[in-house]
Description:
With 192 residues, the chain is an all-alpha fold. The protein has helices at residues 12-23, 25-36, 39-56, 63-103, 107-120, 126-137, 142-149, 153-175, 177-180.
Amino acid sequence: MDAEGPEAGLPPDREDVMAALLAHQRRFLAFLERRVGSRAAAEDLLQTAFARTLEKGGALKDGEGAVAWVYRLLRNALVDHHRRQAAEGRALAVEARDAEGAASEDPELKATVCACLNDLLPTLKPEYAELVHQVDLEGRAVPDVAREVGITANNAGVRLHRARLALKRSLERGCGACAAHGCLDCTCKPRR
């Protein structure tokens, strides 16, 4: 038995399982990457599957059985992954509809909010500021902006969420109590 390998110190049946899984690691990753279209997402899914395999403990006795079991785990993980993506897409669509409705409600309110936001946008990361500007101030659709920037719509949605949180913190820092209580008399000067 090789004392230097990753299987060192394991019982012989566990060594067989670990060796089989490690031998198939590239195939597992390729299997996932073809189905999710992203190396990073594939690596995350594979890491989760390997963690679940380790949790399974001694129940996996032979290498080929472990490989088949991991493929079942990966298929289930893919189904969950695609469900999450679909749910995120639906949430983005609802958010886009809500943003369109809110922007068209009161032109005076929109002008006041836009002026305040334009003052605060430079306090954000440039990629966050640009996304907020294009989506929230110009009223462009998240998928369109994402395509132009070269990222997925889901990634753009996550960035937009983070950008809005950063903008909220900047607004609360700059406007203090009036921002926290929803005051729309935006006469205070933001602190940077």
